[in-house]
Structures are given as C-alpha cells and as structure tokens.
Design brief:
Blueprint: H1 8-56, E1 58-61, E2 64-67, H2 71-77, E3 85-90, E4 96-99, E5 117-123, E6 126-139, E7 142-153, H3 155-202, H4 221-268, H5 273-308, E8 312-315, H6 316-334, E9 337-341, E10 348-351, H7 353-370, E11 375-383, E12 386-393, H8 403-406, H9 423-433, E13 437-441, E14 448-455
Parallel strand pairs: 9-11
Antiparallel strand pairs: 1-2, 3-4, 3-7, 5-6, 6-7, 8-10, 11-12, 12-14, 13-14
Helix pairs in contact: 1-2, 1-3, 4-5, 5-9, 6-7, 7-9
Length: about 450
C-alpha cells in the first residue's frame, strides 16, 4: 500500500510560510536594532545639545573660569521624566568646576579628546549614556580645553526603542498576514490546472475512452500525455477483447452445433447397444460443452456490455415475454406448464436490454433445467420504486446454505452434470450492474422462487 503523501498545496504553503517566517524574523530583528539606533540618535542629539549649551556658558573672569548653568540645557533633558541627569564641568587644568566629582571623563585616554563623544557607561550602579564635549580657550589669562560631561539614564530611550519596535512588529504582522493570504491565493491559483484536470477525469463517463483534452501548463503536459498513452493502450486492449469474444463466439458455436448435428445423425443409424450407450454419452457431453461455451461467451458479453454500453429505457414485461417464447420448445418437450402474470401497463426499467434479456433467460433456463418437473409461474410487479420479477417452480429448490454460492461463478454446479454454475451468477451480475439484486425465497406450499429486483422508472399506477 502506497504511503499517503501530503498535498501539493500543503507542501507549497508550508515552504512559503517558512520563508515568510524567516523573512519576518529577519525584519523584526532589523527593526529592533533600527529602533535602538533611532532612539539613541534622538536622545544623543538632546544630550549633546545640552552639553554644548553648558560649554557655551563657561566664562573667564580675571583669569579664572566661571559658569552659570543655563536652565535651557536641563529643560531639554527634562523632557524625559523617567531619566536622571548627571553632569560635570572641568576647567582647562582638569579641576571640577561643578557637578559630580565621581563622573568619569570617558575621553581621558582618548587619542583625540577634543572631539565630541557619546557612549554607554555605568554611573552609580546604573547604565547611562554619556556625552562629552570640550571648549578651547586661548585667552592670555587661560589657555586650554574646558570639558563638559553630561550623563543620562537610558529608560526613556529604551521605552522609545520598544515603542518603535512594537509598531514595526505590528506592521510586519499585518504584512505577514497579507502575505499569507496572498500565498494561499497564489498557490490555489497556481494549482488550479491540476484541479481542472482532476475534475475533467473524474467527470468522464466510464465508457469514454477518448483522449483527455484539457488545457494545462507546460509542467503538466507529460502527465496528460501519459494518461492519454494509457487510454490508447486500454482502448487497444478493449478492442482486442471485443474481437476475441466475436471470434470465440463464431469459432466455438459453429463447430459445436455441427458436432451436435453429427451426433443426431449417428443416432438415426443402427448401432450396437454398447455403441448406443457411448453415443448417448457423447450427446450428453456435447450438450454440456455447448451450454458451457454459450454461457461463458454470454458472461464475457455481459461483462463487456456492462462497461461499454449505455443504458436505455426497457419494458421488462416485453423482455420477459421474449425469454419465455425462447423457452417454449424446452417446455413442450417436457410438458411443463408456464404461466405469466404481468401488470397491464408497461413495467419500465433503465438498463441494457441485451444484458437484462440474458439475465431473465438464465433465470428461466435454470428453473427449466434444475427445478420444475411440471410448472413454472412468472410474476411481474412493481413495489414502490422497484420492479420485481419472480420465477417460481415446483422443483426441490436450492437449500438456503447454498444461496450465497449459487450466485458466484462456478460456485455450485449442478450435481447431475447438466449445469455449469454460471447461469444464476450471470443474472446476479446483471442485477448488481443495474442497481438491483438477485435473491431467493425458500420453498413453501407453492414452490421455490428466484426474485430479481430492479429500479423502476416512472410512477406507480394505482
């Protein structure tokens, strides 16, 4: 048994979802770093602006540096109410003019300490962002660089980074949902030709052996070509089978009929009692062989027509009359009374008239050969949506234990050697092919009954 593989849609959807998920992860990571950089850049500008304002406030009075801290510098930093601010101002001699003595100079050992600098650091056990700027003095009374160091905790910038990242996540999520919806639409559209091909093949009539002509993409062309190649081979096999059945019917029936005729001619000649006994055996075996060949060919014809011939509306009463007409010679030889009870209106069923006639013929023939010693009664009736054919004979009947076997091929050949075990199996196959069934009713006061039920057409007449 072949292992069931997941559908192409699920495979494509899973692969494209993995690609989209990987892309979303990359975008979210990039959004996080970008948000952090944007937050740092925004707050670093405020930090440097405050440091420059403080540096501009340094003045030289009588050779000594003095400073009056500008309120506007701290107002800029105070826009972030979550953070604490630290500062330190150093004169050109490296002495602290004001601020926190413990706030370290981040550029004390830098190669270019005169450049503005912003970096992360730790102060008083907290992570801070430190800005350092310098201002050169060339006054004759004071020469050198004054340094301004301003530090700020990072809570506000982290909150801004989280807010920007969250908004980016929402945007990526919305775009991801749109992408997934677009993926589903695109995959279904891309696989639509496969669905059209599947529908075209599923809706084909089982009897249709024409080539598949469905417009498909280039990738499906080899698949369609292989289907058409298989149909071509199947059609060739069916034609060979039809030819074989026709040849077999001609080649077998003709010599068997001639052989039976020769046996009959020999029977008219004078032969010894021993020769007469052998001749009678030949006649019996020849008849058995002829019936077996006819039933085998009938079974092959029924199986073939079941798959190759479309049904039509048929009058079951008329078919039954014809089958009884064909059986009249046998009934006259054995003095069997045949009675037909049929409704006045036609009993219409849908099916193959040849196969239905073959089924009725086999049921009647079975009753003649293995059942009735003197009476056969055929009844046709309608019960709701079912047409019912009953063939009753006054013979011994079939034991219930063998009912399941007699409808199988060679399931229960007759003990007297007159039957092949195919007659009722052919009738059962025809009934099943027409949506009906073949069953039996146990022998009662009147006889054993074989019942054929089929789907009736039209309305029941009261």
């Amino acid at each position: 048994m072949a292992r069931r593989e997941p559908s192409l849609f699920l495979r494509l959807f899973a692969l494209m979802s993995l690609v989209l998920a990987f892309g979303a992860a990359v975008l979210m990571t990039a959004a996080w770093y970008s948000a952090r950089e944007a937050a740092d850049e925004a707050y670093d500008r405020l930090l440097l602006g405050a440091a420059y304002q403080i540096a501009d406030a340094i003045q030289v009075q009588e050779g000594e540096p003095e400073i009056a801290l500008p309120v506007s510098a701290f107002e800029l930093l105070a826009l972030s109410d979550r953070d604490r601010i630290f500062y330190r101002v150093l004169d050109p001699a490296g002495r602290t003019m004001t601020g926190y003595e413990s706030l370290a100079d981040p550029a004390a050992e830098a190669a270019a300490p005169d450049k503005a600098l912003v970096e992360n650091a730790t102060f008083d056990g907290e992570v801070v962002r430190v800005a350092r700027v310098s201002r050169r003095f060339d006054d004759p009374q004071m020469r050198g660089d004054a340094v301004v160091i301003v530090a700020q905790t990072v809570e506000a910038r982290q909150a801004l980074a989280r807010d920007l990242t969250f908004r980016s996540f929402i945007l990526v999520g919305v775009m991801g949902a749109i992408a997934i919806g677009g993926t589903i639409f695109a995959v279904r559209r891309a696989l639509a030709p496969i669905s059209r091909l599947e529908v075209a093949i599923r809706q084909r009539d089982p009897l249709d052996l024409t080539l598949v002509s469905v417009s498909t993409p280039r990738e499906l062309a080899p698949f369609v070509a292989e289907i058409n190649s298989f149909i071509e081979r199947l059609r060739g096999r069916v034609e060979l089978m039809q030819q074989f059945i026709a040849d077999a019917a001609h080649q077998l029936r003709t010599p068997l009929a001639a052989l039976e005729g020769q046996v009959d001619l020999l029977s008219n000649n004078e032969v010894t009692p021993e020769g007469r006994r052998h001749l009678d055996r030949i006649r019996v075996r020849t008849g058995q062989l002829s019936r077996l060949a006819n039933q085998l060919l009938s079974h092959a014809m029924v199986a073939h027509r079941e798959r190759a011939v479309a049904g039509s509306l048929v009058d079951l009463t008329e078919l039954t009359r014809r089958a009884l007409d064909d059986a009249i010679p046998d009934t006259l030889e054995r003095d069997i009374l045949v009675t037909l009870h049929a409704p006045p209106d036609p009993l219409i069923v849908s099916g193959d008239p040849v196969n239905l006639a073959e089924a009725i013929k086999n049921i009647v023939d079975n009753a003649l050969r293995h059942g009735a010693p003197g009476r056969i009664t055929v009844r046709l009736s309608r019960h709701g949506a079912r047409a019912v054919l009953e063939v009753e004979d006054d013979g011994p009947g079939i034991p219930p234990a063998q009912w399941a076997r007699v409808v199988q091929r060679f399931g229960a050949p007759s003990s007297d050697g007159k039957g092949s075990g195919l007659g009722l199996s052919i009738a059962a196959e025809v009934a099943a092919a027409h949506g009906g069934a073949l069953c039996f009713r146990e022998k009662g006061a009147f006889g054993f009954v074989v019942v054929l039920t089929l789907a009736a057409q039209g309305r029941e007449v009261a």
